[in-house]
Here is the input.
Amino acid sequence: MDRASEQTPSYSEGQPSLAGESTLTLSRRLVYLLRTMRPKQWTKNGFVLVGLIFDGKLLDLPLALTAVATLICFCVVSSSVYILNDLIDIERDRGHPRKRLRPLASGLLDPVIAKAAMVILGAAGIVGAGLIDVSVGLTLAAYLILNVGYCVYLKNLVIIDVMMIAVFFVLRVVAGAVAVEVSAFSPWLYICVSLLALFIGFGKRRHEIILLKDAASDHRTSLKQYNQPFLDQIIGIVTTSGLISYTFYSFGAETALAAPSQMMLTVPLIVFVVFRYLYLIHVEERGGAPDDLLFADRPLLAAVILWLLSVVAVIYVG
Here is the structure.
């Protein structure tokens, strides 16, 4: 039997039909596309709800639905960005111990399908945001444009690569604040979110250097200009600044029903969350994707949930 006949599937009695094989292939493509959209990382878009929660409007159903709709639009557009990133980095990802398993890098997903989905998702998300509010749509459009610049060029620039990540987090908060028309939203929260993003971003760079070692620069150009002592120093500065900023916010937080002294009760939980994350980075060397850490480490996840519940209790019950 020649090679061609060996590779040609037979559909004898009891085996799936040609139509069944086609359906299975389609379902697999959808699964691989969904994986490329990285639904686990949609948790980052939860920052869209910061304005709703901290402005005391969580119980306002129409505004809550508006905020959730904005969050969904961000999930759609961010998925478009993740696809773009994987398309651009497809060759580099093949040399990464974990990213080589991504559908595009491993060849499981056709780049043509990925490109079509990227365009559709990006357009749908921005149009949807525009229907919510023109300002929300413009904010999401700015988020998409900056992400394209990041994927194409900015992510290769040392320090700027991580600072852009902070910008993306702040834009999420801005969009959510605009969507619910905040009235008592503290500017300190923008600073806290920025520093948190820098903390996570530099922690991820540190993990990449340790994981990839001499091959780090082959995966990401900016890693060539980083080293572990430098990143440790930056992480220390950002950590201190972040904790101080949140303490200042909590001391002067007159958001909704929260008295300044009550919001300070949440500070110890934030301190634990930061220290636990530092422990995971420095001791267990697990400073990769923050969403993986959040769901994989029970003490960290429990502390974050407890902090969120305490914030809600202070604002809406206390």
Notes: The chain has 16 helices and no strands. Residues 1-24 have pLDDT under 50 and may be disordered. Residues 66 and 179 are 7 Å apart (CA to CA).
